[in-house]
Design goal:
Helix content is 14%, strand content 44%. It has 142 residues and is mostly beta strands. It has an 8-stranded antiparallel sheet. A two-stranded antiparallel sheet has the order 8-9.
């Protein structure tokens, strides 16, 4: 009986654990900045008509999701000038700190392994248009 009670107790935590993956946006409409957080690869527009990359997300704690670069998907002239071969796929390009249904998005940039530093920190459209002190306030859309 004790084993069944313990299993049910642990199962209740698993069932009630809320995933922070899904779509997050500034206003949850088509005109706002949004990001799809998924364990699977998903496209992410860094710069309109210049840089579209594949990303995936990982929940690293109860209130934090890390976003990782996978590969470039579509590059315009500006995007072709970046050194994609040297960008890390194991260092997070961004993170979201979550409190309830709100999140704070922080873009780090692409980590250039050859220079051992983040690059394209201020270059993304969303960093120029949405960020205040490097942070974009988001809400969970789905």
């Amino acid at each position: 009986m004790k084993i069944i009670t313990a299993c049910l107790f642990l199962l209740s935590f698993t069932v009630n654990a809320q995933s922070h993956l899904g779509t997050w946006g500034t206003t949850c409409d088509d005109d706002s900045f949004s990001i799809q957080l998924s364990k699977n690869t998903t496209p992410f527009i860094v710069n309109e008509n210049q840089i579209v990359v594949s990303i995936h997300a990982k929940e690293v704690s109860a209130n934090q999701v890390a976003v990782y670069f996978d590969k470039p998907l579509d590059l315009g002239t500006g995007g072709m000038t970046l050194d994609w071969e040297n960008f890390s796929t194991t260092k997070a390009v961004a993170e979201i700190t979550i409190k309830g249904s709100s999140g704070l998005f922080r873009w780090h940039g692409f980590f250039d392994k050859s220079k051992n530093k983040y690059v394209w920190i201020d270059g993304p459209d969303f960093a120029e248009e949405q960020a205040k002190d490097g942070v974009i306030k988001l809400k969970k859309c789905s």
